[in-house]
Amino acid sequence: MPSTALRAMMGTKKPKFGSFVIEFDSPGMGQTLKAAGCQYALLDMEHSGFGYDQLKRMLRFYQAADLPVIVSTVGGDYDMVARALDMGADGIQPAKVGSAEEARAILDHVRYAPKGARGVAVGIAHDRYVPGPPAPKLRAANRDVVFFPKIETPEGIEEIEAIAALDGVDGIWIGHFDLSVAMGIPARFDHPRFQAAMERASAACKRHGKSLGRICDDTETGVALHDMGFDFLCYSGDSWLVQRGLAEGIAALRKACRGPRSGAAANN
């Protein structure tokens, strides 16, 4: 069944911390993130190269770690959204949602009738292969699956109020890099127009009691986002964290190990 833990996080002001998985398909990733203090994982299907066979396997590992997973899909097509949910995603985050009309159409793929038109298969991955009557399972999925559309265009920002107001939209995710590029100010996250967009998103989510999420590359950015009203803080990503930690360690070693060592070993 979808994680009730993720559903319980939605719409509260308390910060929730997670990380982005874009590179490592490893059996231990879920337990590694959980041991590090993550409360959720954001698993990328847009840029990672992960396929659906990998996704199905990865989701079993994260379930074993009892770590909820939000799956980020390339778009909101039925094939992408419904398949990820049937494989056991706890939340879905379609990219580049630009209007309330588009969000409403994707919601049709997320919810079962009478709230939507998601195709029905039970006794499979999304309900953890448990037998039993389908009606309670469908009700549980409609209640617990989280819909977290990603806004990353100026059009999406213009529609942010209407999107946040939709019943069934549980939160808004900001794709900050794509948004800055689409605004013509690539990676200029301190630009007044970009900051105004963030404030507008925050105000819309606050008004409608919805969560607001974004990736933060460092703790200072995360604190600033939290102060602005973001409650889902996704701290960096797997490959970037490994590279950063490795670079820092090697730099420290290189600095400490300059020149020949003293003693007999120096003559070898």
Descriptive notes:
The protein has helices at residues 4-9, 29-35, 52-64, 78-86, 100-110, 134-144, 154-158, 160-165, 176-182, 192-208, 219-228, 238-256, and strands at residues 16-21, 40-44, 69-73, 91-94, 146-147, 150-151, 171-174, 211-216, 232-237. Strands 5-4-3-2-1-9-8-7-6 form a 9-stranded parallel sheet. The protein has a single domain (4-267), classed as TIM Barrel, CATH 3.20.20.60. The relative contact order is 0.13. The chain is globular and about 75 Å long. The longest helix has 19 residues, at 238-256. The protein has 268 residues and is an alpha/beta fold.
* SSE arrangement, N to C: HEHEHEHEHHEEHHEHHEHEH
Question: How many structural units, i.e. domains?
Answer: 1
The name of the CATH topology is TIM Barrel
* Number of helical elements: 12
Q: Provide the CATH architecture.
A: Alpha-Beta Barrel
Percent helix, as a range, is 40-55%
Work out the strand percent.
5-15%
C-alpha end-to-end distance:
63 Å
Order of strands, main sheet, comes to: 5-4-3-2-1-9-8-7-6
Radius of gyration: 21 Å
For the record, the CATH class is Alpha Beta
For the report, how would you describe the main beta sheet? 9 strands, parallel
Tell the overall outline.
Answer: globular
Q: How many strand elements?
A: 9
Could you tell me the mean pLDDT? 94
